[in-house]
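Input sequence (174 aa), recorded before submission:
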Amino acid sequence: MNGSGIVKIHGKEYQLVSYRVNEFRKNYKNWTIETEILHRDKEEVVVKATIKDDQNRVIATGHSEEKRASSMINKTSALENAETSCIGRALAAFGMGGTEFASAEEVANAILQQKGTKEEEIKPASEAQVNYIRDLLRKKATIITKYLTEKQTDINDLFFSEASELINICKGDK
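Predicted structure, token format:
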């Protein structure tokens, strides 16, 4: 991630909601972001975010839905995730975002919810992994370059599971 709050995930840029909220607060001091719980039960949460200008006019909205059973995180924090996502979507509709409409958090959550994906598979590569891969790069540049090209990513944007896979490939374990 760089100073713009943008995270690259498989070659596409997504901006963190927290960064967008900070930018919104700096540039639109008298405007508001309001959230409203539209539905909440033991299975799912639906939240709406509304951006209003200083004259209380609705400028943009965003909605999100989170299923409590969709991930370990949502079992305890579905409401928080839904609120963050709808704020991010409202800000994207307003024109504040990365090169993609979804937030970095939404994309990470979507990857997590894909069949067979575990939470640890979307956490960033560790510093030790990145440093080890850099050392390997000197010795196995062709293999690493091919892997990164196929994944459409950069060494600094690897997920933990991808970094592990690449290290195993270079070690000849896979």
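Checked by second reader. The mean pLDDT is 80.
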